[in-house]
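Field: COMPLEX_INPUT
Field: COMPONENT_COUNT = two
Field: RESIDUE_TOTAL = 688
Field: MODE = joint
Values follow.
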Amino acid sequence: MARRPRLAVWKFSSCDGCQVQLLDCEDELLALAGQVEIAYFLEASSAVGRGPYDLSLVEGSIASPADLDRIRRVRRTSRRLVTIGVCATAGGIQALRNFTTLREVAGAVYPRPELLSSLETSTPISAHVPVDLELRGCPVDRRQLLEVIAGFLSERRPVVPGHSVCVECKARGTTCVLVARATPCLGPVTQAGCGAICPAYGRGCYGCFGPAESANTAGLGAAWERAGARAGDLTRALRGVSAWAPAFRDGGGGDGR
Amino acid sequence: MGGEARTIRAGDIARVEGEGALRVRVRGGRVESVELDVFEPPRYFEALLRGRTHLEPVDITARICGICPVAYQLTAARAIEAACGATVDGPIRDLRRLLYCGEWIQSHALHVYLLHAPDFLGRDSVVEVARDHPEVVRRGLRLKKAGNRLMEVVGGRAVHPVNPRVGGFHRAPGRRELAVLVDPLEEAREDALATVRWAAGLDFPELEVEAELVALRAAGEYPIDRGRVVSTGGLDVEAAGFGERLAEAQVAHSTALVSTLDGRTYVVGPLARYSLNSDRLLPEVRAAAREAGLGPTCRNPFRSIVVRSLEILQACTEALAIVRDYRPPEPSFVAVEPRAGEGAACTEAPRGVLYHRYRLDEAGTILAATIVPPTSQNQLAIEADLRRLVQRGLDLPDAELAHLCERGVRNHDPCISCAAHFLRLDMVALD
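Field: COMPLEX_OUTPUT
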């Protein structure tokens, strides 16, 4: 039997949710474990296999000096490195602190912030090491995650669409919440992948998968105004889980085109 | 051994949520210090919530934990409702409890089968367990899937559900949408009962938690989404009163915030919930507990696997009843008008009592937020367990002792990601 590809799963600053999505593939988990050698996956196994790894899945953002050292080691020992989730691809919800100062946020939580070891900002993996593929989402979608692993196993590029959530709403047959119900929705500027869950539950998209290709946030601002949104609402909505993604970072204030 | 120093290390504790390491120092045959060193960087949620509106913490705080997001969402919602003087009851509350049952089922099934079981079976991971016991693992995965399916139907997705909001839900699922859950939940109930019987037959090392047990308690029900905070030390207060007695301290030479209750070490989680509420379990769950050899209380952290299994059975049975009687609430949420004030709430996350408090201005802008996750409350109790395990196991070789310590940590299912505070513990001996 040919050597099975070696898989590693790493966690940086994050909530664990994207790794959990892998463990939540209940129907595929054991089959997957037969096709790859799970060499390093601390959440799931105490067996720790040394590198090199054929595929590393990386969850979480870089938020501390120790993270920085570790991601460089991970990159050196990984043939392919795929980042999973909004923390790893855009800095995550914790990147909201990038809009203020570390001193301010740390002082609000800890009596002695000087004892902490944090970087000034929370940043995506790609800001520090080359990344082979970025999988978006908060959390990543299980089907997309399996597609990435399947693509890797068959040496083909995984199919991960870059179009907006609107396309998924149409496919799902959901009436547009922005047009029909004047509910503020980030769907037009947010990348597909979740299956357009929020509009199907009667609320607007809140941007878990980050900016779609050629997201026009300024144009969306005009549509929100027509729907009765107040000044500042769009910026507040963009300052969510994907706040530090480049096309969302200016809060809809730039021309965004 | 004389005055010789010995250090037992467990670098990178596996099968916990989040990343940490462990170091125990022994000198002259006595445990000198226990350090649970957690290199999870802080994420500063409480600071990031300042200036947001009262409707936003439900989505934001979910991101504290990918395993128990609903605990954060519902605790945040209830604390904000308390601050605004709103009450959410009746069918909306039933739907909340149903969603929370889903989280208990998937989170407990994850811990019982994927994180904890390998310890009892002498394996590194669930994949290895599956080689010898495929039917056991398949049962665990079925249970986990049933919990996740429930969360998907009610919440929109299992990790970071989108449907909960302040006041209730964005949309109440229809009767037919929920009906698809009946068969999986029926099967899950059988699987849960089989889980209890299987777990009861595992081999449990002796160990007793000595700390005060703290859990919620509510009239006529097992505590999940609400209740007063009670303890074996006689505590009996509302959430707000609980907050007043909690002290969060940044320990000297460390960057951890650890909680004490009126200055005492205490423990939250399945053992505390069960010991303070075993009379509130459904009759069939109580019967299963007796059959599993459990009395009305349980203080052995190794046996928490049995208690979690019983709680899965409780959650499956309750969920099934809610689904069967379900009528969609109309409207799906109570309008919660902001007002200046402060509100606190506690719920029972799978890992134990979770506390949120928010202070709002008249427009609903958050002026201050406090979140105390179960894991930072259990930190000192976990330490105390490790101290006893090590003291008793001094004759063991280092590797075995380190493994025993890791088991001692995993018994409490710590969620290091949850504990935005929980950074690095470096304490000297407590006695």
